[in-house]
Amino acid sequence: MLLSSYRLGNLTLPNRLVMAPMTRARAVDGKPTEATATYYAQRATAGLIVTEGVHPNAVGQAGPFMPGIHTDDQVKAWRLVTDAVHANGGRIFAQLMHGGRIGHPDVAGHHPVGPSAIAAGTEVFTPSGMTSAPVPRALETAEVAEQVQAFAGAARRAVDAGFDGVELHGANGYLIQQFLSSSANERTDRYGGSTTGRIRFAVEAVEAVADAIGADRVGIRLSPGGEIQGIVEEDVPVLYGELLKALPDIAYVHVLATVDDEALMELRKAWPTAFILNPGGQIGPVEGTREQGERWLANGADLISYGRAYIGNPDLVERFRLGLPLAGADRDTWFQTPNGYVDYPSYQH
């Protein structure tokens, strides 16, 4: 089933493999490079590529060497990437990732913002290395709408840059999940407190993006119950059940295996459109396998996303098709280094 086609929104995918978003930290001045275009084009046989996290505005930049999509120059640079992927027959969504409290003034010259003035209690990347995450500035109620509109504006720019759609990053402890989280969100206005309040930011952001570019071009990534970067969520089945009910019928939800199989199955049943599952868990502690993918397709998932496996295997689809062994990827070259990016070869017969 992994190699069968699938209709996703207005796209026909030739297979059910999704290249998961992975931070590679190789942008220059906030822009992707020619190597970025090569990297994604090499992997264009994936049914769908979702890019690394792209900040929708300057204050949303989580770390150094990460690309944005809020200036004309950034749009122009991304056009080289999308053209290269499309020339190789691929389809590509931009992941819109607002770091929220995960960030540092030394990264983009802006103090991080969040739902509440509560530090993540973890370390963040800066140009001079790892340091403690600062206490963010709590967004005023009126300012929350500005961050919602930042997602919508970035989505329009992504379409201008040639992307087939966008995915909102609602996982891994970044801004959208911070609003969902009881440990990051102690607001008493309409964006906090009750389940309805906690999900409001995510719903408004998705609605704004869907209004901007069309619901069939929009997805959201979620890590229900995932505990990373200081995140704690209460009543996870209720929280995410209510979130899925409140979201418009966008192209897909992209769920990390951060809860047990039973809870994942309940989310699958609750969602009316495409359900992408990443079996590797949160920030790839294990490398997903073909067997896991086939099992989840049999259990009702529509598409399977692979992260780490795509670093060292640009031809992952062909390796799965022919039963070829997978190459490993050197963890020391995941970020920033000139090697370990576009130099992984296809399988040599």
UniProtKB/TrEMBL annotation:
Ranges of residues in domain NADH:flavin oxidoreductase/NADH oxidase N-terminal: 7-325
Database matches in CDD domains: OYE_like_FMN (cd02933)
Annotated protein name in UniProt: Alkene reductase
Organism (species): Lentzea pudingi
